[in-house]
Amino acid sequence: MTTALDSRGLVLVTGSPGSGKTTVGDELRRRGYGVFDVDRLARWFENASGAEVSMPSYRDDAWFAEHTYRLPVETVRRIADEAAGLTFICGTTGNEAEIWDLFDAVVSLSVDAPTLRRRLAGRPGGFGSTRAELGRVLTWHANVDTDNARYGALLIDATAPIAQVASEILTTLARRNLSHEQ
C-alpha cells in the first residue's frame, strides 16, 4: 500500500456481501467524506475474452466461474488523483489483488455468519438472495477475515450500529495517520 498523507488518502472498505459496505459508505458520505460505491464503478467481465458483459438475472456456479466482477485499475487511479481529502471506495470485487496496492489503507468489515444471513435475507433480489448465492457468500465469508488480515486489511467489527462502525473506521485510520474526524 502507498504511504498516506495526514488527512488525505484513498481507503478501500471491503468485506462479505451483506457486511455493511454500502451503508458505511452512506454514513461516511453524510459526515462529509468522499465516497464511491463499487457497484457504480465495477463491471462484469468474461474471463476468457476479457469482454465486458451484463450480469444475467439467473446466475449459477458455472456463470460465476467464467466471469469476474472487476474494478478497473484506471478508475481507482483516477479517483486517487482527483481526491481532495480522505476518500473511500466501498465494495468488493474479484480483482482486489490487482488493485489493493493502489489504496493507502484497506478496511475489512467483519460480521458473524448469523448477522450476514439476516442481512442478506433482508435484500430480496440482491446478490446473495438465492440459495446458491447465499451458499457461495457463506463459503467465502468463512475465510474472508483471515484472508483480508493476511494481506494487511484493518478488521472492523461491523455488527455495531452504523454510526459506531463509521466512527471506529475513522478512529482506526486516525491511529494510522490517515484521517482527522470531521
Proportion in helices:
40-55%
Overall shape: globular
User: How do the helices and strands follow one another from N- to C-terminus?
Assistant: EHEHEEHEHEHEHHEH
Query: What is the strand arrangement across the widest sheet?
Result: 2-6-1-7-8
Total number of helical segments?
A: 8
Global mean pLDDT: 86
Query: From the helix content, strand content and strand pairing, which structural class follows?
Result: alpha/beta
Could you tell me how far the N terminus lies from the C terminus, measured between alpha carbons in angstroms? 24 Å
- Rg from Cα: 16 Å
Q: Strand-residue fraction?
A: 15-25%
* Quaternary status: single chain
Spans of at least 5 consecutive residues whose pLDDT stays below 50 are 1-6
The count of DSSP E runs of length 2 or more, i.e. the number of strands, is 8
Main pleated-sheet profile? 5 strands, parallel
Characterise this structure:
With 182 residues, the protein is of the alpha/beta class. Helices cover 42% and strands 20% of the residues. Strands 2-6-1-7-8 form a 5-stranded parallel beta sheet, with helices on both faces. A 3-stranded antiparallel beta sheet has the order 4-3-5. A hairpin with a 5-residue loop joins strand 3 and strand 4 (52-53).
Keywords:
8 strands, 42% helix, 182 residues, 5-stranded parallel sheet, 3-stranded antiparallel sheet
Structure in a nutshell:
The protein has 182 residues and is of the alpha/beta class. Helices cover 42% and strands 20% of the residues.
